[in-house]
Amino acid sequence: MIRLENVSKVYATSTRPALDDVTMDVERGEFVFLIGPSGSGKSTLLRLLLREDVPSRGTVWVANWNVGRLARRRVPRLRQRMGCVFQDFRLLPNKTVAENVAFALEVIGKPRHTIRTVVPEVLDMVDLGGKADRMPSELSGGEAQRVAIARAFVNRPLVLLADEPTGNLDPETATGIMTLLERINRTGTTVLMATHDRQIVDSARRRVVELSSGRLARDDHHGVYGVAR
Amino acid sequence: MLFVWREALVGLRRNLTMTLAMVITTAISLGLLGAGLLAVRTIDRTEDLYYSLIAVQVALDEPTSAEDPDCSSPLCRDLRAELEADPLVASVDYESREAAFARFQRIYAGQSILQLVRPQSLPATLRVTMADPLRGGEIVDRFTGRPGVRNVVDQRATVADLFSFLGSVRNATFGLAIVQALAAVLLISNTIQLSAFTRRTEVGIMRLVGATRWYTQVPFLIEAVVTGVVGAVLATAGLVAGKVFFLDNLLSGRLLANTIPPIGMTDVLGYVGPVLVVVGAVIATATGYVTLRLYVRS
Ligand SMILES: Nc1ncnc2c1ncn2[C@@H]1O[C@H](COP(=O)(O)OP(=O)(O)OP(=O)(O)O)[C@@H](O)[C@H]1O
Ligand SMILES: [Mg+2]
């Protein structure tokens, strides 16, 4: 589902590569943690997958798209098949909860009546059925992140990317988010989650890929956050 | 598609002062353009009106004027024959001194100038209607100073002043319209840039969710088009008001009645209005499109 072949990324403004010859493979339906110290290149890797940036060297594949070579006008199509969740939620501030979720469907041209039935279903799934008409500013961090997850999941993406989705949340709320992501993973969606959250990684016992200064340092199936750190 | 309209509306409301400035500038520019177009129409009609009336007048000298009531003298007959044979000439009418005096009495009936004019002060004339009114000068050159001819006057030359006045009114209006249009274009472009900048985070999020560039930018284009169309409608309303409250009185008043044909409501609503709406919409769209292409990255 996701394949990186000798991928390097050097930002124009820095000398040290943010990613250095990374090769990895993620199968359809897998749940993978991406860990590593700050600045090790986790966000960069996710940005390459979303085509927010292009690799300096190497090839990035998502499903059948050669992401780095994708024509600009085809990028929306790629993103419509991917979901993404961020530490800072990134909800549209002047749309209600329901409208934020509906937006992902409007973008792919789903008809109104479909949107009207699907959005409440997904909001129920994330336990926000009663808050459909709230504005994002009226939500707690955990609720906002659940809206973001609902939006990412509503059009059944092939891949869900999450960049520190629990970074701003207390441990209990974080566990709730993690449970949600695992549920989404069980529907067959491939999940790639960058995180610093040791407790979550340790208790999930999922595949762990560790980056260190842009290099692939470890790739454990059923891994833990760190051994001697 | 509902989404983009909603966004455009929100965009227009968010920046109400800018929106008003854009609409007003656009309206003034289009209003001036419309006034220019009306001027062109009026000038064309005035010209048509005059060219059907005006002629080259070949005034005959005193002996002929006094003695020849029907152009039967050899001198007059030859002049007439030569004029009629000329391809520039459509027709020639002879007006004797008596006929000229009768016409004069008709035109100035009841006015004091009648007492001053005797038949003897009016010459007999050959009224030459030109096939091509613009080439009357050639007849003037050819017949001035010929035996039996007192003088030759191209009436067109006397109305040329009126046309050159109307022409300069038209040019000034178009000039102002262009300057105003430039201001409107800059203002629209600036507003779109500002609007796009204010919404860059939002647009960024939309792009991440998979919105196309087109999808996120159409609201800005609609904002521009709405501005253009509303401006055009206001401009048309302004022209109607100007016609009803100002021009109608002026053109039917003493000074200009029968000099300049009146401007009809169909000229404003049936011709200039639609033109302004189309021009407004096209210019606004083009401005919006170019601005988004060149200045708004995403
Ligand atoms: N837009 C950018 N321009 C230049 N350098 C950048 C840019 N984004 C990231 N970097 C650099 O690339 C390296 C990797 O950054 P990245 O954001 O991928 O790290 P990260 O693993 O996500 O860190 P964190 O855990 O703090 O989020 C860092 O050295 C960072 O300074
Ligand atoms: Mg990061």
UniProtKB/TrEMBL annotation, chain A:
The entry's keywords: ATP-binding, Cell cycle, Cell division, Cell membrane, Membrane, Nucleotide-binding
GO function terms (MF aspect): ATP binding
Localization: Cell membrane
Residues annotated as domain ABC transporter: 2-228
Pfam family, any one: ABC_tran
Membrane topology, from the record: Peripheral membrane protein
SUPFAM superfamilies per UniProt: P-loop containing nucleoside triphosphate hydrolases (SSF52540)
Domain of life: Bacteria
Tagged with keyword Ion transport: no
GO BP terms in the entry: cell division
PROSITE patterns: ABC_TRANSPORTER_1 (PS00211), ABC_TRANSPORTER_2 (PS50893)
Record function comment: Part of the ABC transporter FtsEX involved in cellular division.
Oligomeric form and interacting partners: Homodimer. Forms a membrane-associated complex with FtsX.
Family: Belongs to the ABC transporter superfamily.
Protein name listed in UniProt: Cell division ATP-binding protein FtsE
Organism (species): Actinomycetospora lemnae
Biological classification of the source: Bacteria, Bacillati, Actinomycetota, Actinomycetes, Pseudonocardiales
UniProtKB/TrEMBL annotation, chain B:
Chain segments annotated as transmembrane: 20-40, 172-197, 218-246, 271-292
Membrane topology (UniProt): Multi-pass membrane protein
Protein name, UniProt field: Cell division protein FtsX
Quaternary context: Forms a membrane-associated complex with FtsE.
Organism, as annotated: Actinomycetospora lemnae
Residues of the FtsX extracellular domain: 68-152
Localisation per UniProt entry: Cell membrane
Keywords, in A-Z order: Cell cycle, Cell division, Cell membrane, Membrane, Transmembrane, Transmembrane helix
Summary of the function given for this chain in its UniProt record: Part of the ABC transporter FtsEX involved in cellular division.
Taxonomic lineage of the native organism: Bacteria, Bacillati, Actinomycetota, Actinomycetes, Pseudonocardiales
